[in-house]
Specification:
Number of strands of chain B: 10
Number of helices of chain B: 7
Largest interface: A-B, 34 and 42 residues
Structural class of chain B: alpha/beta
Shape of chain A: elongated
Radius of gyration of chain B: 17 Å
Strand order of the largest sheet of chain B: 6-7-8-3-9-10
Helix content of chain A: 55-70%
Strand content of chain A: 5-15%
Shape of chain B: globular
Largest sheet of chain B: 6 strands, mixed
Number of strands of chain A: 4
Strand order of the largest sheet of chain A: 2-3-1-4
Oligomer: heterodimer
Order of helices and strands of chain B: EEEHEEHEHHHEHEHEE
Number of helices of chain A: 11
Structural class of chain A: alpha+beta
Radius of gyration of chain A: 32 Å
Strand content of chain B: 25-35%
């Protein structure tokens, strides 16, 4: 026995020292009061890993859809089309030239008139190649590229076209834009809902696992109470235990999602070189998540670990209050 | 230090297991708590430890009304009390050293400050060779000594021991009693619940609390 005097009853730490104490406590090697390697812990790591994988996969997919819709929007909103329909008694070539002349106004960077052959070629994917389309009333297209800094007077353009070329129509793609943005918004909302459901399922799994861990650690909790551990100390031990499990599960699930997105990016980049993939590329872009996407997956995995720890702390404190 | 006045306890709607218990434990005092099996010795110790609430009466601990204590107050008071449980209550996944150091760890002390103290105490109770052993491989007597070391490591103001010599041979029992007496001399109040009359006879100056039929009789 040492001759040290009786220790004074420790008072609760002052709030201004709490952060410092927490950092010191986390940094130093310490006793593991909640056994780490139980079957239940390992099962929970797997559950968290799967949930993290699903959550990050959903989040990443939402980001891909959002990026693709942004690309569609920007690509489509940078262009407009004048469609000149053939009409009996009118010279379509003259109408096309006139419409192009009208469109030569400030705000457009480039005007490209599609020739009859080019317009016919646009129909090949639907009608097949090698057909003689000369007898068909194929509309002619004039593609107008908008100057990035310019604002063309569309009302004046429409008015001039209706007066001078009544069989021409200006399509600014706003219906397409609206449909695309509605669709992409809906997909993102669905993805967010799935993400929230996955997180909810994970939170419930953690809550049940925490209760199970508490039931299995009842003797440990009793001993800790008898040696004077306050509830927040015990809750912090469980929080630390579940943070470790959450980090392990998050690392596995998030890491796997990162690998999946990376490999998917590589595969689509290779596949997109083939002609049949051009439609997919047009729709979904390059399936490349980008640095922000990868960062989001990492942050989401970390957030899931923190959520696991916070949830377990909350469950432990609530049950300890009942036990007391 | 500890004062009970007309304390009664019943479980649910049953009869009172403890009736009109009144006593006080003074600083630096030594008392044996005895009585037949099932008399309520462990229950009385649990009341002192505030793991049970009385159904009536007044309890004061370290000058504070027990009924007014918050959870944090209770934790703070428990840090001033050392407890030796009849069933040891050692944590099987911690080494003997870690079990004994547990109260100091809970108090937030750094290992470097308490390690020599813990090792010295373990050697003193004859567990120097078992510092890194886990409780499942210890004998009953070794577990008992580890449990006692855990209770003593904080040099408590009050020591509650429930049958502390129940699993040890008479020689070790005498040695442990001497340890409790030394602790008492250094200022710790001691309450030992025991059946062991021979043990009690070795310290005749100690007060005797005898529980029977739910009532407490005190022999100074």
């Amino acid at each position: 026995m040492t001759d040290a005097s009786h220790p004074e009853a420790a008072s609760p730490p002052a709030s201004d020292n709490r952060l410092k104490r927490s950092i010191q406590a986390f940094a130093q090697p310490r006793l593991t009061l909640i056994p780490a390697d139980s079957t239940a812990s390992r099962a929970l790591v797997i559950v968290i890993a799967i949930m993290t994988f699903l959550a990050t996969l959903t989040g990443g997919s939402a980001m891909l859809i959002y990026q693709a819709s942004q690309n569609w929007n920007s690509a489509i909103s940078r262009e407009m089309t004048i469609q000149v329909k053939p009409q009996l008694g009118r010279d379509i070539e003259a109408d096309v030239r006139k419409a192009a002349d009208i469109a030569r106004m400030p705000g457009f960077a480039d005007i490209r008139v599609f020739s009859r052959e080019e317009s016919s070629r646009l129909l090949e994917p639907w009608l097949g190649a090698g057909l003689d389309l000369s007898e068909l009333p194929v509309p002619r297209l004039i593609v107008l590229k908008i100057d990035p800094g310019g604002r063309p007077d569309l009302a004046a353009l429409r008015e001039q076209l209706s007066k001078q070329v009544p069989n021409a129509a200006l399509d600014d793609h706003h219906i397409w834009l609206e449909r695309l943005s509605t669709m992409s918004r809906a997909l993102v909302v669905v993805a967010v809902i799935i993400l929230l459901l996955v997180l909810l399922a994970m939170v419930l799994a953690v809550a049940f696992a925490t209760r199970g861990a508490m039931a299995g650690s009842r003797e440990i909790i009793d001993v800790l109470h008898f040696v004077g551990a306050p509830n927040r100390f015990i809750a912090a031990e469980f929080q630390r235990h579940f943070l470790k499990l959450g980090l392990r599960g998050g690392l596995i699930g998030g890491g796997f999602a990162l690998v999946v997105f990376y490999l998917a990016g590589l595969l689509t980049a290779w596949w997109i070189a083939s002609p049949e993939a051009s439609q997919v590329e047009a729709l979904f872009g390059r399936f490349a998540l980008g640095a922000l996407g990868y960062l989001t997956i990492i942050v989401l995995s970390g957030a899931i670990a923190l959520l696991t720890a916070a949830m377990s702390r909350s469950v432990v404190l609530r049950r300890l209050r009942r036990m007391n | 230090m500890v004062r009970f006045e007309n304390v009664g306890l019943r479980y649910g709607m049953g009869t009172e297991v403890l009736k009109d218990i009144s006593f006080s434990v003074e600083p630096q005092s030594f008392q044996f708590l005895t009585g037949p099996s099932g008399a309520g010795k462990t229950t009385l110790l649990r009341l002192i430890l505030m793991s049970l609430k009385p159904t009536r009466g007044f309890i004061s601990l370290f000058g504070q009304d027990a009924s007014q204590l918050t959870k944090d107050d209770i934790s703070a008071i428990r840090r001033r009390i050392g407890v030796v449980f009849q069933d040891f209550r050692l944590l099987d996944h911690l080494t003997t050293y870690e079990n004994v150091a547990l109260p100091l760890f809970v108090q937030g002390q750094e290992e470097s400050t308490y390690r020599p103290q813990v090792v010295e105490l373990l050697r003193w109770v004859g567990l120097g060779e078992h510092i890194h052993s886990y409780p499942p491989v210890l004998s009953g007597g070794e577990k008992q000594r580890a449990a006692i070391a855990r209770a003593l490591i904080v040099q408590p103001e009050l020591l509650l021991a429930d049958e502390p010599t129940g699993n040890v041979d008479p020689t070790l029992a005498r040695r442990l009693l001497r340890l409790f007496m030394e602790l008492n001399k250094s200022g710790t109040s001691v309450v030992i619940a025991t059946h062991d009359l021979a043990l009690m006879d070795q310290f005749e100056d100690a007060r005797r609390f005898v529980l029977g039929d739910g009532r407490l009789h005190i022999y100074d």
